[in-house]
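User: I'm putting together notes for a lab meeting next week and I want to include a structural view of one of the chains we've been expressing. I don't have a solved structure, so I'd like a prediction I can at least talk through. The sequence is below, exactly as it appears in our construct file.
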Amino acid sequence: MIPSLSVQRVQRFGHYWLLCQLGYCDMGEMWLASPDDGLDANELCVIKKPQPDTFHEPDSIARFLDEIRVTDLLDHPNISKVLDAGEIDGEPFLALDFVEGKSLSDINDRLRETGQLFPLPLTIHLGIRVCDALAYAHRLVGPGNRPLQLVHRNICPDNLLVAYSGGISLIDFGMAYSTLREAQTLLGKRPSQQTAYRSLEHARNKAVDARSDIFSLGAVLWELAAGVSPQQTREEMELWLKSGRPRFVSPSNHRKGVPQQLDYVLMRALNNDPRDRQQKATELQRELQAILDRLAPGYEQIADSEMSQFMHDLFGTSFIEERKRTMHALKSAQAEASVGADDADGEPFDDDDVDDDVDDARGDGEGELPPSQSPPLSKRAGTAVAVIAGNRGLVVGFVLAFFLSLLVAAALYLIWTLLS
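Assistant: Thanks for the context. Below is the predicted structure for the 420-residue chain, given as structure tokens.
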């Protein structure tokens, strides 16, 4: 996720500065942000909050609380981490890890623009990493050691991020199903863009389990391996929903050099009948690992650096321009917050100042960016649910305590009067 090209004025949001809007997701809008006590390129995070026209709706708040409950329990290197959560001026929010990179959707668009294909070893590596994240999420237990039966339900290119450093992150559990969920999230009745990555049972609004996520990941990997989009016309998708006929063909039909075994593994994951797919993410992970070991022995040891090089080759110097825009926004926030000796006096800053900051932030290696660091945020998401849900309870409690203290005082006065 990177800053948009549009120039926006920084905004104050509680103890955060919203630097620029990154985009929208199913449950709200995403902002590049920085805590006001750490206006620094290494303190960046992403603020997720409901869109202004929905955050007063009880269902929207309930879904947000559900997402907080689930994501606060997740701790995996390939899953975006919730750093902070709470409520600011009555508006719930999440603060998430900032990944300096691109979504897989952006990568697919650039590949099509330039006529390139996603390297097969990196396709398999990405699948292995996401499988590891899903296997962790699917077996997660909650309070009382109770299985969460967690299903992401929205595995798609928009929700997979690739960092310029080579890391891979699964994001957005806003539509996830779990035993902790209190609000119900149903799909729209009409096919959408994400329908192309959903299992048949999910697209039909039927009950889903971990095998639905396996289908969705299979569709994502199929697109990378085949080099073509799985998107179809609305009429074709509606026909698929009604008939249930297979709508994928082997990736090798579209791209030469795809190993036969990869064809088989991906087409198995894309079965319309969940009983015919891999039954667990670990099973798909093992199959992909076996293919990679034959295709490129030892590749996993260099995969992150290979992915990083691929990202830099694909996007050229655009990441430097993105970092410049970020630095401009940070400088604006510093000026408005009166932080920094040079810019706080209202003196304009120029591109040379920003260029120096970009050079400082890039690290020793030319073209390399440091891995993002988690900001030192004060709140924890686990307490935020109780805070938001219990605000009214606290008010009632204070009122009761006040009247109780009056009764106790009156009783003590009466006893003192009788004794005297």
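A couple of points you could mention at the meeting. The two ends are 75 Å apart (CA to CA). The longest strand covers residues 16-25.

User: Perfect, that's what I needed.
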